[in-house]
Predict the structure.
Amino acid sequence: MDYQVIAFWLLSFITLGSALSVVFFTNIVHSALALIVTFLGIAGIYLTLHADFLAAVQVLVYAGAISILIVFGIMLITRGDGKMAETNLFGKYKYTAAIVVTTLFGVISYFIIRTPWSIETAALSENTIGDLAEILLADYVIPFELAAILLTVAMVGAIVIAREVKNPK
Amino acid sequence: MIESIGLNYIWLVPLAPLVAFILITFLFKRFKMLSALTAIFSMVISFWLSLDIVKTILTDHSITMNSPLEKAVPWLNMNGLFIEMGALIDPLTAGMLFVVTFISLLVMVYSVGYMHGDPGFSRFFSYLALFVFSMLGLVIANNYFQMFVFWELVGLSSYLLIGFYFYKDSAAQANKKAFITNRVADFGFMIGIIILYLYFGTFNFAELAKGISSSSDLAFLTLAGILVFIGPIGKSGQFPLHVWLPDAMEGPTPVSALIHAATMVAAGVYLLARGFILFASSTTAMTVVAYLGGWTALFAATIAITQRDFKRILAFSTLSQLGYMVMAIGVGSLTAGMFHLTTHAFFKALMFLCAGSVIHALHKQDIFEMGGVFKEMKITGTCMVIGGLAIAGIPPFAGFWSKDEILLVAKENGYTLLYVLAAVTAFLTAFYMFRLIFLAFFGEKRSDYHAHESPWTMTVPLMILAVFSIFGGFIGAPFVEHGFASYVYFGEPHHPKPDIMLMGSSTLIALAGIFLAWLVYIKKAISAEKIANQFAPIYKFLYNKWYIDELYQWFFDKIVLGLSALLNWCDRYIVDGIAHSIAWMTRTIGAKGRYVHTGSLQTYGLVIFAAVVVIVLFLAGPVVGGVQ
Amino acid sequence: MITLNHYLLLSAILFCIGLYGALSKRNAVAILICIELMLNAVNINLVAFTKFLTPEVLTGQIFAIFVIVVAACEVAVGLAIVIAIYRDRSSVVVENLDWLKW
């Protein structure tokens, strides 16, 4: 067996398992931790797809920044009443949503399998950072800059929304 | 081309009063005498031009009924619709122009005296000018469209004048009645014109005449003729649309004179004469016209016998005389109809102006409250007697010649029934006219009043008209060569032969009528009240004008309002009901349906993705089913 | 041999897990987390397409980068909103957040 195949199945198992944990854990902090595992698993998946730069970004941005952000968020919205085990329960659509989602998965997988993909066998370059840099800073330079502006705006917006409102007296 | 000021400036004939109307309305309204003088001056211009036209036609024989002079400018030229504004000059037009301008001029002079001191003095003259303008425009029209436009203008100005004392409720009712009745008739006229246009593609009289004489579609011509005839039924007060004319007495008396003699009711008869070829082409239409005219003549005369109001009696006599004219045209003699129109204009204007003079002096209208007025008002009284003799048909007064000619043509053309009707009417006419004269002017005073003769502005027109009422008939008398009949005719000139038998009998009939009136009201040999009591139902029936007004009222109250109520119900409960139930459905669906919006984020998400699944499966149905 | 279909199915499963969580969890932060899962599933898709369908151009990866950027913004703003709501109502249970109904 090819080590790539082993890596794929292993990483898939980790990713899907932790993703299921994210959903089914009843403690929101546990869910957040499982999320980090999922992100790392996905980073591994990227590596099997020869996307080394993306794998690095995934680890830095998702596993690092976003996870920490979420954990901070959880901290801010959770009362310290010792009932952490009931912070992440299911709502009224537990079963209805399961039916809809299963059907949706059936539809998606049916089309995935049925679609005749035109597979290209050419290999990716070993190091994609150089190519990505050329594309991002030449062809996609305007979206790139826009993304920077978007980040700034989102940051300012988040601060404005989350800021504590002083009683206007 | 004939050189004549009148013919060259024929436009000025109707335009002069229009200019006067505009000037008075917008500039001179506050200066009473200036307004009156402007109106009279404009009439002098029109009258002088009309005289010149008449003179040209009499001296120069190139303009005849069969070769009229036509002048026109294009007015509307749209896709497939060509309408011109023009003048058609033939002896018929010239005669009408003379009558209209002559009577109008005298009436205006008279009005200076009659309307003296009235707060609406200037307004009155501006309306008079508008009225005359409308009528003159109608007379010179060279096509049906132009005629219709002025026809409606005549209706409008009569509306304004009948309602001159608009603050009086009865006047407001009367002008409304006149206008609405005329609208009913005008509608028929309009449809007639339109179908004529659709059939022949022109409004022009001359072109239509050509088309009609070469057309053989008798049913169409009959229909068109009768539809066009509906116009004169309203305008010239023929049965059953005569109801407005007696009520039109609510206007000032000079207006009554104008309406009855020159500018309004004459329009209907003039239309019949102008469109004569249309009626002549269909025997059925002619028969309808003739019998309706004859019937109206008798019908109105029977009502006139019982009336008590001075002006109302005259109004019904007008209806009766109009019946004569329409009948004359119906039996096929345009000449006799127009001749009677002319003489009638003289003596009816005379009588109305006399009535105005009496009412002006006495402030009373009921003839049973008068009596002996002759002693105080010699000129008016004399003129009234002349008018009475003229309308009764005593030779040599004007009415004798024209009425005689109508009787003659009725007899000659084989309408024996109509001849008898007309003769009976002539008897009744003589009776009721002299009933009026004997009751009002002779005998002793029956109430307290102070009479005085009217000022010269009123008596001078009376005297002029009296002269015309005496001698006016000679223009068409049978022994006059190149008389009225040599100029105004249809087809070939038809000279009446003097029929001594007929003349004698009609004179006797008229004298019998006068004698009977004398017996009843002067000699009192026969008591009028006794007869009235003995035949009370008939008397009441006649006094109430055959209950025609009541019939219309009933028709309106029960049928029209009933239908309206039904339609109202339909509208309210069916049409509105449908609209309301649609609105109710929308409201209810909205009220219930808004609960779909739960506001719950996850419900929305669930629905969205469920919908995605359904839509994808629906769109991809053929693929999933294995078709592709 | 691992084919494109393997990756796509992995991505689909991940997406569906995320969707299921987003539709069924009560905690607003948990919903945000699940949305992150869905976005990641999409990213796997894009990267897999780059590898198997268009190896010579890296458009898929570029898209993935932008998705990560937008996801970061989304998490930041989303958490800010959740915090604001919590401050107002002392609760982040989405089933109670239904003030926009009828």
About this structure: The interface with chain B takes residues 19, 22-24, 31, 94-95, 97-102 of chain C (CB under 8 Å). Residues 35 and 91 of chain C are 20 Å apart (CA to CA).
